[in-house]
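Ligand: nickel (II) ion. Inputs:
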Amino acid sequence: MHKPLSAISLATGLLFSGLTFVSSAQAQALDAAGLQTIDAAINGVAAKMVSWRRDIHAHPELSGQEVRTAKLVADHLKRLGMEVQTHVGGTGVVGTLRGGLPGKVVALRADMDALPVPENTGLPFASKVKSTYLGKEVPVMHACGHDAHVAMLMGAAEALAGMKATLPGTIKFIFQPAEEGAPVEPDATGKVPSFGAKAMVEEGALKDVQAIYGLHITANLPSGVVGYRSGPLMAGSDSLKIVVEGRGGHGSSPWNAVDPVVAASQVVLGLQTVVSRQLNISQEPAVITIGSIQGGTRYNIIPDNVELLGTLRTFDEGMRQDALKRITTTAEAIAMSSGAKAKVVFGPVAYPVTTNPAELTAASLPALKLAVGGKAMIIPKVSGSEDFSEFQKVVPGFFYFLGAPPKGVEFSKAPSNHSPLFDIDEDQLPVGARTLAALAVDFLQRK
Ligand code: NI
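Predicted complex:
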């Protein structure tokens, strides 16, 4: 998950949704005996997963800078005898495990990047790392749990490599950089070169792949519980910049100027009517937030222009495209009404909606529930976003959450993702690895 608004609000939703544990009565390709084999293999790497997670946690790397992490992953996959591609979409790594029997191709994905957040957990392996991001020195922390994602997928890879002879098909292990955002500044039109999942897709990471699975760890679900939903799960996210151009002058005589401060203020308010008056929110919810207003230098000077930065969150591709157009029209027309001009640019963040296709969700649930002993629940939509959606644009993909609040902390009170206090329960690493391995084997075995 990425960007300030993506700190997930599962806890709030859960208070209202209640816990709906569901049994796994449907027929599945993966049976109890198959799960036992996976379990034994995962238990064998449980301790390693903890040490990998701590090592990666102590050495976090920002989006696009995941050099050490990528090497750790690539070395591990090579030791397991896999074909390994490095530098896929930047620092991405893809390991290919060909099973002993012919069959389908399935992918499992983990994201590798950390965030510019000062770690305040007090953990013995807490990060002391500083790095440079977009020209500024920043502290770096695995505040979104991607360290756990990498450790879990490395564990699943080792377990599945041990079962290679009996696997009917191929499993691709996708370790993705830059999920949290663009590694470079956008150009004047708001564009940046492709990054993250999109860049990996463009460089062929999903070639021949028929389905992809991924998970996100969260402290805001009960321990060991998987949260999922069919259809839209996480919001599409578009960042936007609006420059309101006026004409500067003396604050005492605004009639001789075109005041971009007043025009920009009207634009901020006007944009709120896009969601409240223009979009059909009975279909899906949407959010527009302006998070930054910059303009002016002094109390009595009307500046030439004002810059607004914001984000749009949507859960339907049609509504997303509609909202993008309406934001532009609304801003331009409001500015024009006072003789100013609004230039609207979207990007560099432009993540589609993370949507779990109904068919793949229904087919995957029995194995997922089996892997967590039935501890699965339907969760509310999350207004945070994920570029796992870029993979889902190409092949059917299923994304879910795994609850791992720190021991002794109530999940609804645990510091959320992106907090300087974010932490997890490492006992859930084998649970996550087991779900990934189970979903992959189940997909390969399923008719
Ligand atoms: Ni995340």
